[in-house]
C-alpha cells in the first residue's frame, strides 16, 4: 500500500505533491466525539472528591485514597485496551466498546448506594481503557508519514478534549449546586451517550480520511497475515515498504545512535528490567514488615510488570526503531512529574477552591467546580496560538525538539505551583480567634486543620490560622462527643444511605447529653427527618445524612461552649479565604506547560512508535498519567494533615528537578529521534 493516497483525497497530498492546508472532515468527527467523552469524564471528576468530602463526609485522606485508585486505573487500562485493539479488536470496535461501558458507568453514578458507586467506577475504568488510547491513535491514522499537519491536528483534537472539559464543570457544578450531586453525575452520562452517537454517525468520514492517508483499519495480526499471503503470491516484491509494519523493518536496519545517546538507548531497557524487579520487591518487604497495607502492593506490582514487559519489548527492537521508541520511555519519567502536579486539579486544588478560595462574582456565589473550567478555557483560547506557533517555527527551521518543548513544560509547572505557594502563604497569614474558657478533655488540636488550630488557656482563646474547612470542624467535634454517641451517629449515617420517603429508617442515638436538642435547620429537618422521639432517643430519617447534617448532630452532642466556639471560629476564618486569582494564575501557567507537553506527546507517540505497537505505546504514554495519579493521589492523602504551603512546595521541588534534568538531556534525546520533530 502506498504511503500517499490518491491526489485530492482527504488527508492526502495534492496533485503537485504539497500537503493540503485543511484537515480531513473525519478529524472533526473525532473532535466532537472526544469533546462529549471528556465532558462526561471531567464533569464527573469535578464532583468526585467534593462528593466524598462534602456529601459522604469522608476526610481528605480517605477521599484521596479512592481518587488515586480510580484515576490511576483509568490511565492504566489504556495499555491493555491499546494492545487488544492492536492485535485483535481494531480501533473502531475498541472505541465503541469503551463508549458503551463508560455510558453505563456514568449513569450508575447517578444512584446513591455505595455498591453502585464503586461498580460505576469499575465500568468507567474498563471502558476508558478501550476508548482513550484508540481514539488518539485513530487521529494519527488520518495523516501519512511526513505530513506536517499532524501536530496541528493533535492540537485541534486536544481543543475538543478541552471544550468538553470547559463545559462540564460549569454544567455539572451548577446541577450539583441547585439539585444535588447525582444530577451532576447524570449529566455526565448524557455527554457520553452523545459522544458515542456522533462517532457511530461519522464512520464514513473517518474511514475516508484514513484511506486517503494511505493507512487502514487492519490490526497488526491482519497485516502480518496479509503480508505473508502476498509474499507467497509474489516473492519478488515481498520486501517492499508498502505498509507501516514493513516500514518498521526498514527503520530497524538504520544504525542506532552512538555516544551518550546510544548509551541511553541501550541502557534504558536494562534499567526498566531492574525497576521491574526492585519496585515490587521494595513494597513486598514493606508489607511483610507491617510498614504498608497489602493493597499498597497492587500498583507497584502492576507498574513493575509493565516496566519489565516494555523493557523486553524495547530489547527486541533494533537500530533507529529502538532509538525512537526509547525517547517515548525516556520522557515518560518527566511526564509523570508533570502530570503528578497538574492532576492535583481534581483533588487538592479542588478542595482548595471549595474551602480556601473566595467564590463570589459581584453578588453571585458560584460552585467550586467552576474553577476547573479555567484550565480548559485557556486551552481552547490559546490552543490555536500554539498550533500556529509550531507551524511558524517549523517553516523557519526554528522548531523546538520534542524534549525541548517538554523542558519548557516542566519549567512552567514549577512556576504554576510557586503561584499556589504564594496563595497558601497569604491564606496561612490570617489568624482568627474566639473566646473559649476550657478545652474538652478528649480534643487533640495537633491533628486538626493541619495542626493550625491552637488554644491559649491564659487568654481563653481558640484560634486557627487560615480557613477552617468543614471536614476539620467535623473532626474537632468528633473528639469532643461521647465515643458511644459518635458510634450511634456513624450507624445512622450508614443506615441513612438506604433511606427514602417511602422507606424511612429509625436509628437510636445514645447516650444523649442533658438538654439534647436537634440543631437541624428548617431545610435540613424538612429533607431528612421523618420523626424524632425524645423519649426513646430514636431519629427516623427519610433521606441520607450528608456532612452538614452530620456536623449539626455532632454539635448537638458536644459541650455547648465548645461547639459554639467552633461555629464562630469557622465563620470568622472565612476572612482567610484568598482571591481566586491565585488559582487562575496557577492554571494559566500550568496550561501553557500542558500545551507544550500533552498534544506534543500524543503526536510524538504516533510519529516515533513502531506501527505494530502504535496503540500499545499510546497506552504506555497514558500510563505516565496512571503513575502520576497514583503517586500524586498518595501525596494527596496528606492534605489536611500538612499545611497547604508545605503541600504545594512538594510540587515546586519535583517540577524544578524535572526541568533541570530534562534540559541536560535535550541534545542526546534529540539525536535519538533521528530527525523526527
Question: What are the defining features of this structure?
Answer:
677 residues, mainly alpha, Growth Hormone, Chain: A, three-stranded antiparallel sheet, 8 strands, 68% helix, elongated, peptide transport
Walk me through the structure.
By secondary structure, the protein is mostly helical. It has one domain: Growth Hormone, Chain: A (Up-down Bundle). It contains 23 helices and eight strands. It has helices at residues 25-55, 60-89, 91-108, 114-141, 150-179, 181-201, 203-212, 220-233, 244-253, 259-288, 298-316, 319-342, 348-355, 374-395, 402-428, 470-480, 483-496, 522-528, 547-557, 560-573, 581-608, 614-636, 644-672, and strands spanning 360-361, 364-365, 431-435, 453-456, 461-465, 505-508, 529-533, 538-541. The strands form three sheets. Strands 3-5-4 form a three-stranded antiparallel β-sheet, with helices on one face. Helix 9 (244-253) crosses helix 12 and helix 16 (470-480) runs parallel beside helix 19 (547-557). The longest helix is centred in the N-terminal third of the chain and has 31 residues, at 25-55. It comes from Chondromyces crocatus. Keywords: Cell membrane, Membrane, Peptide transport, Protein transport, Transmembrane, Transmembrane helix, Transport. It is a multi-pass membrane protein. Residues 224-248 are annotated as: Disordered. One of its GO terms (molecular function) is peptide transmembrane transporter activity.
**What portion of the residues fall into strands of 2 or more residues?**
under 5%
Total tally of structural domains = 1
What is the straight-line distance between the termini? 25 Å
CATH architecture: Up-down Bundle
Low-pLDDT runs of 5+ residues are 1-17
The major beta sheet can be summarized as:
3 strands, antiparallel
Shape: elongated
Nearest-integer average pLDDT: 84
Structural class: mainly alpha
Any idea of the CATH class? Mainly Alpha
**DSSP summary: helix tally:** 23
Rg on CA atoms, Å: 28 Å
Order of strands in the sheet with most strands = 3-5-4
CATH superfamily: MFS general substrate transporter like domains
Number of E strands: 8
Output the CATH topology: Growth Hormone, Chain: A
Helicity level: 55-70%
